Amino acid sequence: MAEEAVHWLQIRPEGTYLDATVGLGGHAEAIARQLTTGRLVGIDRDAQALELARERLKPYGERVTLVQAQFSKIDEVARNLKLRPADGLLADLGVSSFQLDTAARGFSFRHAGPLDMRMDLDWEMTAAEIVNRTPESELADLLYHFGEERDSRRIARAIVRARPIRGTEHLAKVVAGARASRGRQKLHPATKTFLALRIAVNRELEELGQFLMRAPATLAPGGRWVVLSYHSLEDRLVKRQFQERSREGLMRILTRKVVRPSGAEVAANPRARSAKMRVAEKLEPAPSPAEPLAS
């Protein structure tokens, strides 16, 4: 949804913009293309993706700065760069196509690979550790809360019995065998299990919570904040944060209903089908009450 993101950001050629999850640089390039004297700072925790983005964005020279960091630390990044308050902020949540399609990263049940799932390869916890070491009841709770998996207890029991789980294909086979049959399914049986494990490995909901709290401080009054989410847990947090900021008079919600990808985009990129875009604008701070006159 690069076109929609750029539309809502209302890019100004001299403006300052933050891409909190730069990935391979698709959104970043769409922003940088419209800058003249402006500046774009892109952040990502994945060093491999960042190197590819750096190559892609090289033609834009000093207009673009890339930083390896967790997006939960967005305020620290802006402070360290002495960045002026941004005119626009974009966050495209979740896993990237690059990560999904790289078998060695272990994000997808469609490719044989190790049970890794780390967005930052310096991160200690891997999916293999969770799958092979977590007690059954805790594993079931994790699958239920992070994956919204109705068959979580049956799947957790099957995983424990099949230990050690050796890789993505092995895990997908175990999960598929444990799922209750409910007729024709749109999703692969292991989809929710892999989602839950990925969220747990990368502490995605904790990271998102911190980002949502800290991000508004990096925006200038009138600055636009665009967030793309891909599952209900993410979208719920974003929606709640926007609503709270709106009630406090700090933000104005611009998208009363979520913006979804067009049919043409879904046809070209099926992974976009679950995307939900929400947009808010930072308001000018309310004026302080006038000091009472001295008698």
Structure description:
- The protein has 295 residues and is an alpha/beta fold.
- Helix content is 42%, strand content 15%.
- The protein contains 13 helices and 7 strands.
- The protein has helices spanning 2-9, 26-32, 47-56, 74-80, 97-101, 127-133, 136-147, 152-162, 168-178, 191-202, 204-214, 232-247, 263-268; strands at 16-19, 39-44, 64-68, 86-92, 219-229, 251-253, 276-282.
- A 7-stranded mixed sheet has the order 3-2-1-4-5-7-6, sandwiched between helices.
- Helix 1 (2-9) crosses helix 2.
Give the integer mean of the pLDDT values: 94
- Element-by-element helix/strand order: HEHEHEHEHHHHHHHEHEHE
Number of helices, counting only DSSP H or I runs of 4 residues or more: 13
Sheet of most strands? 7 strands, mixed
General shape: globular
State the main characteristics.
295 residues; alpha/beta; 7-stranded mixed sheet; 13 helices
